[in-house]
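This protein record is not my work; I was only asked to verify it. Take the sequence as given and treat only the tokens as open to question. I have pasted the whole thing underneath without changing anything:
***
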Amino acid sequence: MFVSKLSDSIRQLKQKGFRVVGCFPLYPTVELLHSLGVIPIVLWDLKDQVRSLEESDCHIQGFACSVARRLAGFVLSDEGALLDGILMYNACDTLRNMPEIIQLGLEEKGRDLPLFRIHVPMAPRDQTGSDDYFAAGIRELVRGIESAFDVRFSPERFLESVKLYNAMRSLAVELEALAAAGRVSYGLFSRVIRDGYFLPVEEQILALEEAVRQASSVKARDDDGRGIIVTGILPPPEAVCAALEHAGLRVVGNDVASQARSYGRPAAETGDPVACYSDFYRNHMPCTTLLYTSDGRVRAIHDLIRERNARGLVFIGEKFCDCEYLEMPFIGKTLSALDVPDLQLEIAADDADNVESLRTRIEAFAELL
């Protein structure tokens, strides 16, 4: 495996004496890990970090999404051996079974890695009465991390970590607004957000502050009537971002899981992790990986389109992601009723950055607007 930004970042953190825990899916308890002196790295959108799927192909079917395949490929690789632990929670059917797959793969390699898990109830809690169950899971997670790394939880440090991550989320919202105004390209915005997942939150904040500073000095573009919303479980690859912008389309907002759905709502600022994460997961922005929130997706997308005065929606489909694909036909139907066209693009695991097969469709969609 080639040396990537991800493995470089982990190696540098290890050299500084930090312990690093790989986290997935997208919305892990990063504040808790940070408050305990452990650096959380969110293992998501690894297309540029994991080029070969040979390792994961030994454990995961070829018709699974590339998110799961690249995730397994990294954790089971020599680069993944740099990690000091893994934290997982349940999301879609594929990722729900990843802990057992990862654990078996590590055993085959003779590697012993602490594995922390929580279960997020995927039904509305007011229907299932699962608050006590979830609270017990968070407390058990705290005890597990304390035991594995010989550290002790502090409510004061936890609150400090929550505030740091909320500051990072606020800067991401600010940078998104600058991208919507045409003061920074959506491609650059996406790169800053993605690379931040592989950095400590303090470095994420510095990178976002610099990006905001540079973008703020650029003059805003006039509204040309070609504003679009981008949605999907993953953002468009950089080549697709370039194709969208070359066609004259401007991303004025996003509903991408690894972008706005991740930073769009701050965590409750409290020193109690049970209260913080009960609120965090219960009131999270609607996302197909949190099934109990999915009923709010249509309204959230419609509200975003109206708020940003967008003319269309582009769906970036991750091949074999059933959650997103089951939902998009209905969302597209509701958009038709609003006279808002949508374009659905599919990205497969083995797709290169060459987007010539998509460019014609993107340009036709731009002409439609």
Remarks:
- Strands lie at 19-24, 38-42, 85-89, 115-118, 227-232, 250-256, 312-318, 342-347.
- The mean pLDDT is 91.
